[in-house]
Design a protein that fits this description.
With 114 residues, this protein is of the alpha+beta class. The chain has helices at 2-39, 105-113, and strands spanning 50-53, 65-73, 79-86, 92-95, 99-103.
Length: 114
């Protein structure tokens, strides 16, 4: 009887953990985007920016980050996609809407100066 109770409790906690993770990941990434939007006008990602890659298929312990190595412009004003270099993949192309800039080139230069 105890074994059944433990299995049911484990299954229930696993389900709750997965629900919490999917909800938190969705909401936390939106929060990061809103904070950046409120503090600065919208800017195109640039070469050298450190970004967080939004991917629904990654496990909860994996947060893929990368550095922009080149941009693919849609026209002269807007960037449509960015080619990234991550720790595991040398070249990864993602649309701008699937990226969150977490540290821009300007912020990196400011941190280096101080």
């Amino acid at each position: 009887m105890k074994r059944y109770v433990y299995k049911a409790t484990l299954a229930q906690s696993t389900i709750l953990s997965q629900l919490f993770w999917s909800h938190w990941k969705r909401e936390h990434i939106r929060t990061l985007e809103k904070i950046k939007r409120l503090n600065q006008p919208k800017r195109n990602p640039q070469v050298g920016d450190i970004v967080l890659v939004k991917d629904e298929n990654t496990p909860r312990t994996i947060w893929t980050t990368g550095r922009g190595i080149s941009t693919e412009p849609e026209n002269k004003v807007f960037v449509r996609s960015v080619i990234l270099k991550t720790q595991t993949i040398s070249k990864l192309e993602r649309l701008v809407i699937k990226l969150v800039v977490i540290l821009s080139v300007e912020e990196q230069n400011y941190d280096d100066d101080n």
